[in-house]
Design a protein that fits this description.
Layout: H1 6-24, H2 30-40, H3 48-74, H4 78-111, H5 137-158, H6 163-172, H7 178-189, H8 196-214, H9 218-235, H10 243-255, H11 259-272, H12 277-293, H13 297-310, H14 315-328, H15 332-344, H16 352-366, H17 371-384, H18 393-405, H19 412-426, H20 429-440, H21 443-448, H22 452-465, H23 471-483, H24 491-508
Helix pairs in contact: 1-3, 3-4, 3-5, 4-5, 5-7, 5-8, 7-8, 8-9, 8-10, 9-10, 10-11, 10-12, 11-12, 12-13, 13-14, 14-15, 14-16, 14-17, 15-16, 17-18, 17-19, 18-19, 19-20, 19-22, 20-22, 22-23, 22-24, 23-24
Length: 510
């Protein structure tokens, strides 16, 4: 699945469907078997082995359906989204049922600690009670860990869905409780189930990748980093030479602005993953980003060029990053050649990142790129991917000087937006507000950089939310950014951030 190569993704689909059939091959299939048992009330004396096996099969089927849904979503077609949503609905119902059954078995076990056997009695309204005997507490703990992985991921991912998609999610019947998701993943990570390492990686992914990308301010990110460091410390003895754990250690270092230490971790992870191409690629990606944060354009260029040549995920996007870093390092002829390649590598027409890369590369190709415009392109992606706050004061000052020197009418609004972001990272709130206000008023720039105005309004709203006396005005600006603009680059991304900001506001001001 990680290769993004069509042939291998099809092989993954075939393997998952085969696994489903194996799990459902016993009698009439898992679901039908359960129905028959309930209807006939014939299996009340079945051994605990059968109970455990049946629940484990259900969980595996649900896991397979989640992975099949992910493979559908990767296609980024409307029919694939609908199909994926329906598959996820089936998976959620199975996770929810298994989680409920296992929890009830555990409760029964705790109420009867003196017995070596436990029984589950449930009344589903329309059928008789189902009783299963002989399940050990140890088996229940492992099963709870197994189902908690998928159950927790569902809650966590859906809790981050923006409002305009929540209606669809609600129609499909999904909940979204972030705390429940984190709690379930933590349970799974400490369990003896084989998915415990995956649950640990999911928690690290959330705390070091997702939360920093969508968080309104540094408080949530700080708590997430503390949790990630705690997890890494606990698991370092178990996985001393894991490339993935070294990768997440690098993520923590990067978010704490220790860029040189982060680079050392990513290089170590790259070496540890010498026979794992996909993990090598995520390490190269981070090395490229850390190099951009340090304004080390040549190292960034080498990382992204290798990704452009080796990765199957988005060669178009990597080509654009290669071009701006190459131009920023001073090789403008080489950059111009790469910008021409971006259009040729544009394959996923509905992908916002590739659409953005193509538009930016085409504009730079037409106006003959300068070193300053390529550096502007680097600063822009650092802003859009929320990496400016990882930059040191000295690097922010260099960015400020480059931005101040630009006077092209075509990028004036973008210039003010990025200046505002740089000032905000520096703590110069008054200058940041002025720059964001100029960006929000730049009507001409709206036609070229269509995301500039809504993002500027959002940034102003976030600044005003920080002061109790201007919370109302800040909230109004967030709603304005959400409702007054449409059809711009990275619209979904901004909606998720606005959703996160408003949700944080509700927690503080009920």
């Amino acid at each position: 699945m990680m290769t993004f190569e069509e042939e291998k993704m099809q092989m993954a689909c075939d393997d998952l469907r085969t696994t489903e059939k194996l799990c459902e091959s016993d009698n009439a299939g898992v679901i039908e078997t359960i129905r028959n048992k309930i209807k006939k009330s014939m299996d009340s004396q079945r051994s605990g082995v059968v109970v455990v096996d049946r629940l484990q099969r259900q969980i595996i089927v649900a896991d397979c359906q989640v992975y099949l849904a992910v493979l559908s979503f990767v296609k980024q077609e409307l029919s694939a989204y609908i199909k994926g949503g329906w598959i996820l609905r089936k998976a959620w119902k199975m996770y929810n049922k298994c989680h409920s059954d296992i929890s009830q078995l555990q409760d029964t076990c705790q109420r009867r600690p003196s017995s070596s056997q436990v029984s589950l009695s449930t009344d589903n309204g329309n059928h008789n009670a189902l009783v299963e005997n002989g399940v050990t507490a140890e088996a229940l703990d492992r099963l709870k860990g197994s189902v908690s992985f998928g159950y927790g991921l569902f809650h966590l991912c859906i809790s981050m869905v923006p409002p305009h998609l929540l209606k669809i999610i609600n129609l499909l019947g999904f909940p979204g409780d972030r705390l429940q998701g984190l709690s379930s993943l933590m349970y799974a990570s400490e369990s003896k189930d084989m998915k415990a390492p995956l649950a640990t990686l999911a928690l690290l992914w959330y705390h070091t990748v997702v939360l920093p990308f969508f968080a309104l301010d540094g408080s949530d990110t700080h708590e997430g980093l503390l949790e990630a460091k705690s997890i890494l410390q606990r698991k370092s003895v178990v996985y001393p030479n894991s490339s993935l754990f070294m990768f997440f250690k690098g993520r923590v270092q990067r978010l704490e602005c220790h860029i040189n230490s982060a680079l050392a971790c990513f290089h170590d992870a790259l070496e540890l993953a010498s026979d794992q191409r996909e993990i090598q690629h995520v390490c190269l990606y981070e090395i490229g980003w850390c190099s951009m944060i340090e304004l080390n354009f040549e190292d960034a260029f080498r990382s992204f060029e290798r990704l452009k040549n080796e990765s199957r995920w988005s060669q178009c996007y990597y080509a654009y990053l290669t071009g701006v870093c190459q131009g920023a390092s001073g090789d403008l002829d080489g950059a111009s050649g790469v910008f021409k390649d971006v259009q040729k590598l544009f394959k996923r027409k509905n992908n916002q990142i590739e659409q953005f890369a193509v538009k930016r590369a085409e504009r730079l190709r037409k106006i003959s790129p300068t070193r300053e415009l390529c550096i502007l392109g680097v600063i822009e992606v650092l802003y859009l991917w929320k990496a400016l706050q990882n930059c040191s004061s000295s690097k922010l000052q260099i960015m400020n000087q480059v931005l101040q020197s630009l006077d092209e009418a075509l990028c004036r609004g973008l210039k003010h937006l990025l200046l505002g972001a740089v000032h905000k990272c520096h703590g110069n709130i008054r200058d940041a507000v002025q720059a964001f206000q100029l960006a929000a008023r730049d009507e001409y720039g709206r036609q070229i950089n269509s995301y500039v105005q809504p993002y500027a309004v959002y940034e102003l709203g976030c600044i005003l939310l920080a002061k109790p006396e201007t919370v109302g005005k800040g909230r109004s600006l967030l709603l304005q950014a959400k409702e007054d603009f449409t059809g711009y680059d990275f619209e979904n991304r901004l909606h998720v951030r606005i959703h996160s900001a408003l949700a944080s506001l509700k927690e503080v001001v009920p």
